[in-house]
């Protein structure tokens, strides 16, 4: 913004106090839902899949489901715990425990 709107040359712009890693998805334009999942011992979403048929199970439910079958209550939509639910649902994918977020068109 400083370069485009204020005309400041790139070599004169100094940015401090940024997080090491940022994630901001502004718009998703595919008809197929995208699933992001992060392992419960990690703070980053480091796995992405478009495969809604991927087998999974939800903690406390004995049956095997697919990612497409998860309800909105079983999906953690926000990256940061302070912004999301206090007790997100644990989903088991390939014998690994994780939280899952579903991103749809828009």
Which properties best describe this structure?
mainly beta; 6 strands
Would you kindly provide a brief summary of this structure?
With 106 residues, the protein is mainly β. It has one helix spanning 2-6, and strands spanning 34-39, 47-49, 55-58, 65-66, 91-93, 96-103. A hairpin with a 7-residue loop joins strand 1 (34-39) and strand 2 (47-49).
Secondary structure layout:
Elements: H1 2-6, E1 34-39, E2 47-49, E3 55-58, E4 65-66, E5 91-93, E6 96-103
Antiparallel strand pairs: 1-2, 1-6, 3-4, 3-5, 5-6
Structure commentary:
- The protein has one helix at residues 2-6; strands at residues 34-39, 47-49, 55-58, 65-66, 91-93, 96-103.
- The chain is mostly beta strands.
- The chain has a 6-stranded antiparallel sheet with strand order 2-1-6-5-3-4, with no helix packed on it.
- Strand 5 (91-93) and strand 6 form a beta hairpin.
- The protein is elongated and about 60 Å long.
- It starts with a helix and ends with a strand.
Largest sheet: number of strands, sense, barrel closure: 6 strands, antiparallel
Quaternary organisation: single chain
Cα end-to-end separation: 24 Å
Shape summary? elongated
Q: What helical percentage do the residues reach?
A: under 10%
Number of separate strands: 6
Number of separate helices: 1
The low-confidence parts are none
Class by alpha and beta content: mainly beta
Strand fraction equals 15-25%
* Number of structural domains: 1
Q: Average pLDDT across residues?
A: 79
CA-atom Rg in angstroms: 18 Å
The H/E string reads HEEEEEE
């Amino acid at each position: 913004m400083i370069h485009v709107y204020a005309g400041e040359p790139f070599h004169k712009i100094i940015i401090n106090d940024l997080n090491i890693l940022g994630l901001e998805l502004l718009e998703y334009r595919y008809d197929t839902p995208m699933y992001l999942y992060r392992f419960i011992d990690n703070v980053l979403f480091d796995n992405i899949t478009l495969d809604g048929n991927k087998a999974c199970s939800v903690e406390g439910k004995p049956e095997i489901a697919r990612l497409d079958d998860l309800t909105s209550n079983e999906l953690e939509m926000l990256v940061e715990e302070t912004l999301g639910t206090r007790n997100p649902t644990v989903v088991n994918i390939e014998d690994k425990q994780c939280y899952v977020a579903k991103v749809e068109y828009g």
